[in-house]
From TrEMBL:
One of its GO terms (cellular component) is plasma membrane. PANTHER family: AMILORIDE-SENSITIVE SODIUM CHANNEL-RELATED. This is Uncharacterized protein. The lineage of its organism: Eukaryota, Metazoa, Ecdysozoa, Arthropoda, Chelicerata. The chain crosses the membrane at residues 62-80. It comes from Trichonephila clavata (Joro spider).
Length: 119
């Protein structure tokens, strides 16, 4: 497409007042947002999200959706358990002081591996 054709196509969308009609703005924003969101999800560090977006078959998409759903539910459950335990403020301290003034030392035997010579 040449620059002249591009300018002509752009002029078609612009009304007499020099503004893009609102329906065209919405369509342009929607397509732009869709491509940005697709790019973001494709490059996601959450592996299941990237696979969900890039998978071609319906079965694979369903499988990755279930994997993602189970992961999110498991994480949510663990966070819930942690927070409920945290806000209960359980404090358990067992302190036992034992003074043992007399220490029993173990018997120590030193074995010399050098032979004793009788001279």
């Amino acid at each position: 497409m040449t620059s002249v054709q591009s300018k002509e196509n752009t002029k078609q969308f612009i009304s007499d007042e020099g503004k893009i009609p609102s329906s065209e703005k919405c369509a342009i924003k929607h397509e732009d947002l869709k491509s940005i969101l697709l790019n973001l999800l494709t490059k996601s560090s959450v592996y299941a999200v990237a696979q969900l977006v890039t998978s071609s078959g319906c079965g694979r998409k369903l499988l990755w959706f279930l994997v993602l759903l189970v992961g999110v539910m498991g994480c949510s459950y663990e966070v819930y358990r942690f927070l409920t335990l945290y806000f209960q403020y359980p404090v358990v301290i067992t302190l036992e002081v034992k003074n043992n003034w007399k220490l029993d030392f173990p018997a120590v035997t030193v074995c010399n591996l050098n032979r004793y010579e009788k001279k």
